[in-house]
Amino acid sequence: MRHRIFPLLLALLLVLAIFSPIAGAVSPDDWNSETPENLQEGHLYSQTAVMIDAQSGEILFDKDSKVRMYPASTTKIMVLLLALESGKSMDEIVTIPREANDVPSDSSFVPVLPGEEMTWQDLLMGFMINSGNDAGNAIAVLVSGSIDAFVTRMNQRADELGCKGTHFANAHGYHDENHYSTAYDMALIAQEAMRNEEFRRIVSTTEYTMAATSRRAELKLTTHNILANPASEYYYEGCIGIKTGVHSKAGNCFVGAATRNGVTLITVTMNASNSNRRFLDNIRLFDYGFTCYDLYSLSELFDLSGQDVHTTEISNAAKDDPQKGLLGLRLTQVSDPDFARYIPKEGEARIKALADFAARTSVNLREGLAAPITEGEIVGTVSYVGAEGDEVTAMLAAQRSMEAQPETMTLYDILPFLEPIRPFLESGAFVYVILAVIVIVIALIFLRVRHAAKRHRRRQEIYDLKRREYHRQQVEKRRREAALRARREGNARVPARRSPSAPAKSPRPGNNSTSAARRPAQNAKRPQNRRPGGRNIRYD
User: What's the average model confidence in pLDDT over 7-29?
Assistant: First the structure.
């Protein structure tokens, strides 16, 4: 018996395990509003959903956001974006084309009638608030000339925005098997649209009155977005749009946006089983989204920003200053003490948010700020301008005291006549002037050296010419002198010819009887007479 009971118990446990809920799975009923940071996919009624930061595009929550779905009237977000990008004036009077009637009979209507005249703004407001498909067709024709051309532009714009799972087949969102999108793609389209100021104004309008026309009386409109209606139990503070959508094939869809303290979140939920559940899903997403951020005051943001924002360098700080002249700044006397902004808790989005704050912050230090400085001394002002144009100002105070360097004699103390041109001397222009003068002086020196070298070469050439000429003259002179001596010597050796008629000269008395013709030879080699005793006698 015992052996039979044991298998039965095992079988029973197996059946219970198969048919019992999966361990750890959650349902929408398990969601706790006291702990919104614990949101899970199972807490949402919608089949797919996504939430992004409107500024950075960072995905904060995802539930099958890239699964293809039918967008229903959330399609109108793209239609309104293209209508505003067409450049038409809000006050322009337009005539409703006949194509406005080309919609299924069970469509939602504004209504607008062919031939009716109204302002462009009235047409857009009726289109978004009353979700009129007839107005969608009218907008398509007025912008692109035909519905087909406008739908082509819708698909082109979706591609430009990076929508990979989207294809539009009409200008209003009525069900078509070839008209589809994804939660993520709709978030991308909404992100781009919310950058347009007119778009934000239209989708955040909860009540509007269309002016009377020749075909009807004035028409009062009320938004279907109960998250933006203060009288609704689903009202969500800070909700600023965007668009509902519903169809039997698409289910209940909603693209929403909410802003708090400088942070805007965009949510998309698709195919919820009823209208209220889609709004509950978006409330849960918003609550979760804002827990992804920390709230900071202006002073706290200032302290978190880069060093170049909340510090400054004092040039005349004492040499033994512990921070080398770097002075920390803090805010005081903030113009709006309640000012606060959400900043992502972590990740790249936090870095980008702090960089954006620094870029929107202007620091104006007191002119001529120099040490000594006392702690708490006002040294300047700071101004922050938010994305919506809101400005907050504050005073800048020194975080610590700072001593100055001992005063030393300056150039202006020695040469006081330079004081009037001190701004010029201390400016960058003076440096350029000095550099220009140096370049000119170097150029002049180069030219002078070059000219001196050229002149030296010319003088050397002249000297060489004169030296060669002198040498030539000396050679010529020596040659002439040599020739002259040679002639003289030649004349001395050769006797002069006597004319045949000239009488012969008789020899002088006392000389040998040597002829006159031999006298030169005798003179050249004088006879040496000997003295008695054998010694020669030399006649000079």
Answer: 60
